[in-house]
Amino acid sequence: MTEQPLLSIRDLAISVDLPDGRTMPIVEDLSVDLMAGETLGIVGESGSGKSLASLAVIGLLPDVARPTGQILLDGENLLQASEDRLCQIRGNRIGMIFQEPLTALNPAMTVGDQIAEGLVWHRGLSWRAARREAVELLDQVRIADAKRRAGTYPHEMSGGQRQRVGIAIALALKPALMIADEPTTALDVTVQAEILDILDDLVREYRMALILVSHDLGVIARMCDRTLVLYAGRRMEEGPTRAVLATPLNPYTRGLVAAVPRRVSGDGRLASIAGTVPGFARLPPGCCFSDRCTEATDDCRAVAPGWFLASEDRALRCLRVERREIGR
Ligand SMILES: Nc1ncnc2c1ncn2[C@@H]1O[C@H](COP(=O)(O)OP(=O)(O)OP(=O)(O)O)[C@@H](O)[C@H]1O
């Protein structure tokens, strides 16, 4: 029997209610599977819908956002789940690490108690036992002198230490799926590397599936088996990270790869994708990337490209590549 995906996102669309009464479609036609223990990177420029898509999985979308489609965790559609059920799933089955740990942490509670809390409420541990385990978790995320640090408050810690606490909280109940939304963006480079190391070790040790949201292809390359590229709320390309980065097929992915700092163009300047992501109200007809794509034809500007399988494990959206590969 073939293994079922742990997470299966089917035709997810998310629109947002605007203050003027209009509804703006943001994420469209998003489908992706994630197996137990697999790591998936979601990459794209700012505003491409990465955070909304990952918040939908953990049921933490802002009130103005309206999701449709299916988000199946072990076959259960989370978009239909009650708030009580989502509370059970959060922490227990899905853990989340946020970009800015300070906003996710309670300033009035010691970090040890914030880690212990989930163990008390979800696992029924006594506070004494949960606090003991919290110290072990702090040790696992490499906080030195963990026993003493458990009694400190978030504001007494550095940004990197707070993010370790964020990881310890998300890890406490050993969820099957961990979602990390730009977990290192707010940190300086050396701390970033340590945090990624810790996350990598833990994901492998506990065989957790990971969705890592980042605009940084270097981070994705280091951490993720597979990569999904989003642009303006649409998936542009998906496949094994190594293949997507070595031979990107979609012109947008090619632009992202070319813009990675190690790739300096012949005249010594960094390559970049001309223009910016257009507002969702101003997306061009046809392919949403056509107004920035240097390879776009009149057809690209008129016909919305479908999602097609380029090979067994690679899929993308691009009319020109599709016609070339499939001969349509
Ligand atoms: N609460 C909200 N109200 C209105 N629009 C929103 C809201 N949250 C997100 N959006 C819209 O959805 C788009 C996608 O947002 P999202 O945060 O998912 O992008 P992102 O790819 O994660 O960007 P970043 O890397 O900057 O976090 C935004 O550009 C914005 O237009």
UniProtKB/TrEMBL annotation:
Predominant localisation class: membrane
Record lineage: Bacteria, Pseudomonadati, Pseudomonadota, Alphaproteobacteria, Hyphomicrobiales
Keywords, sorted A to Z: ATP-binding, Cell membrane, Membrane, Nucleotide-binding, Transport
Subcellular location: Cell inner membrane
Assigned GO CC terms: plasma membrane
SMART domains tied to this protein: AAA
Family the entry assigns: Belongs to the ABC transporter superfamily.
Entry protein name: Peptide ABC transporter ATP-binding protein
GO MF annotations, alphabetized: ATP binding; ATP hydrolysis activity
Sequence ranges assigned to domain ABC transporter in this UniProt record: 7-257
